[in-house]
Specification:
Elements (H helix, E strand, L loop, with lengths): L1 E6 L11 E7 L8 E8 L4 H12 L4 E6 L5 H4 L2 H7 L1 E6 L21 H11 L1 H12 L3 E3 L6 E2 L4 E5 L2 H7 L14 H18 L4 E5 L15 H4 L3 E6 L2 E5 L5 H12 L6 E6 L11 H7 L13 E4 L12 H9 L6 E2 L5 E5 L18 E5 L1
Parallel strand pairs: 3-4, 4-5, 5-6, 11-12, 12-13, 13-14
Antiparallel strand pairs: 1-2, 1-15, 2-3, 7-8, 8-10, 9-16, 10-11
Helix pairs in contact: 1-3
Length: 372
């Protein structure tokens, strides 16, 4: 049993996104001995590239499972082309508008009803709603992926979000009305989002950061958005190896996933981890990294784990943030890196592929720039 994970190039210039193609099973055998999974499809223009990648490198037009981690455009928009042009058996996607029962009581405006919130979610998450309708129209089995959901006799399993956690996040999604209990945490997230939107348009002011081995330049505060934390976190276990896919999940969701891993009786060892949210500093912290990977190690000591972030060619210093890559390296993953507008293939017991070669690990950065 082998696998190959292709983290594809997504977006142009500084707009990062996710499109991941996976094949596992007997990769030296026939298509019937293999399972093909797609996790996210990038922007609209990335969908055709993903289709062609599967056809060219996996030698098939049949996809067993497509997973939409969350409805941000840099993850979901390309999946419409995948659904349209490939033969997809099953689609995993959250249908937020189906979780509107009792939701109205969360909001200050007394005129809001459960029905109106359901319609608002359809409008706000239009890409997701249309994708579900498209899939159903083609006879594809559509399922909502919550903790414990599995595929292929448990080889693929959802670690987060739980149904309860997902429904707790919904009132905090972007574009929702003001809640009765607008928490400081949500205000901080809104302020952070506004600040990011402003700085994205403004000229970037950079400052120099000096790093020391083993000292993470990260904190344990979860400041990512509710929608990001709703990302489907999935594990794939192949031949005793755990492969972890995180979408744009933040620290809270990652800790929930770590709880599930703690109870897993498979004995599988982590061998691959998708660095969440293109390597954003807001989505990862020392404590959750210690849970998922282990404590920092001495210089030169290595763990047999690969970690990859999908980032645009000009995404730095935000995507990826060097402090995030350094934190993975502190934990014995010298090959932790970002795609930076290219594609990276991680594989085990898989045939060689012409034009794809091993990557040289990037050196540890003792000094780097970050946004001031």
């Amino acid at each position: 049993m082998g696998y190959e994970i292709d983290v594809l190039a997504v977006g142009e210039k500084s707009n990062s996104g996710d499109a991941i193609a996976i094949r596992y099973g007997d990769l030296h055998g026939e298509r019937g001995d293999q399972t093909v999974v797609i996790i996210d499809g990038g922007y609209k223009d990335d969908g055709q590239k993903l289709v062609e990648h599967v056809q060219t490198h996996f030698h098939t037009s049949k996809v067993d499972l497509v997973i939409s981690t969350h409805p941000d455009q840099d993850h979901i928009n390309g999946l419409s082309t995948v659904i349209d042009e490939l033969e997809v058996t099953e689609l995993w996607i959250h249908q937020a508008w189906e979780h509107n029962e009792g939701l109205a009581e969360n909001f200050k405006d007394g005129r809001i009803t459960d029905n109106s919130i359901g319609e608002k979610l359809k409008d706000n998450l239009e890409s997701a709603y249309k994708l579900v309708q498209q899939a159903k129209g083609k006879g594809i089995n559509v399922c909502e992926p919550f903790t414990g959901s599995s595929f292929d006799f448990g080889s693929v399993k959802v670690l987060s979000p739980s149904l309860k956690y997902y429904e707790e996040l919904l009132p905090k999604f972007d574009g929702m009305p003001e809640t009765k209990a607008a928490t400081e945490d949500r205000s901080a997230q809104g302020l952070m989002a506004a600040l990011e939107a402003f700085t994205a348009k403004a000229a970037k002011a950079l400052k120099k950061v000096f790093a020391s081995w083993g000292e993470d330049q990260l904190d344990n505060d979860d400041t990512t958005s509710a929608k990001n934390n709703s990302s489907v976190i999935t594990q794939l276990i192949v031949d005793g190896r755990r492969l972890l896919f995180t979408g744009d999940a933040g620290i809270t969701a990652l800790n929930n996933a770590a709880d599930e891993i703690d109870t897993c009786a498979s004995g599988a060892e982590l061998r691959f981890m998708q660095i969440p949210h293109h390597g954003s500093k807001r989505n990862i912290g020392p404590d959750v990294l210690n849970r998922l990977i282990g404590e920092p190690v001495s210089v030169g000591k290595e763990r047999q784990i690969s970690a990859i972030a999908s980032s645009a060619k000009e995404g730095a210093p935000k995507h990826p943030h060097q402090a995030v890559l350094n934190a993975f390296k502190h934990r014995g993953i010298p090959g932790a890196r970002a795609t930076k507008g290219g594609g990276i293939r991680h594989h085990y017991d898989a045939p060689d592929r012409a034009g794809w070669s091993s990557l040289t690990p990037e050196p540890y950065c003792y000094e780097y720039d970050e946004e001031a």
